[in-house]
Fold this sequence. Notes:
Blueprint: H1 2-58, H2 60-104, H3 108-113, H4 122-129, H5 133-148, H6 152-159, H7 167-183, H8 187-197, H9 205-219, H10 223-236, H11 245-248, H12 250-263
Amino acid sequence: MKIFMDIKKKRVNLHLIKFLKKLYKHKVMAKKENFNEQEQNLENFQNALTTTESFIEKNQKVLTIILGVIVVIIAAWLLFQNLYLTPKNAEADELMAKGQEYFAAGNYDAALNGDTIDFNGFVDLYDNYGITKSGKLAAAYAGLSYYKTGDYDNAITYLKKYSGKDAVLKYTVLGTIGDCYAQKGEAEEAVEYFLKAAKSDNLLIKPVYTVKAGIAYESLGKYDKALELYNDVKTNATSAQRGIPEVDDIDKYITSATLKSNVK
């Protein structure tokens, strides 16, 4: 029995040795493959460096010129910013403040054309300072001032020049363009701009221009589209919008459009 156990033990040891040899051989091969892969990666990297160095050597003159141009552009921009744009912005801001005073006071003629003293008007401000923030804003104020004076064509021209991103003013400008077209009797164009203005998330602006778009639709005989807009205002009205005539009187708009639709 002891002899049998010894033989069995030797067989087990023999299998274990063979297994360990195979495992060792596998590890050696894996290390060799990993080494070869690393060696290949190193060679590829060296080749890439050589190619880059060769490219730089061949194109050194062109690259130097390009780098020089970039440096000149950056330097020119910094000079432009510091020596021209910054002072220009300060001047425009001062003029804008003066124009806003006239606009707030309802003196639209002075706001547009100046006071012959130290302010030449929003139109001049836009023409001469259009590159500045206040100069761009002047286009909106000029358009709004023209609208207030009943000059709808010039109002549209300047309002369309405004390219600012102020969340309130942007949609007010679009809505006022719609007002101009409505005053000119161009209802389809009015609807287009009222609907653009109605995309505002502002609780005060959105319902006003939604209803105005509905009124313009009514003038075109499109009562179904008008009712759709009116019902949207009624459905989405909140307590925060109480006091806005377009919201408070929305049932009247719905009733009126419904009656007109039935007569049609």
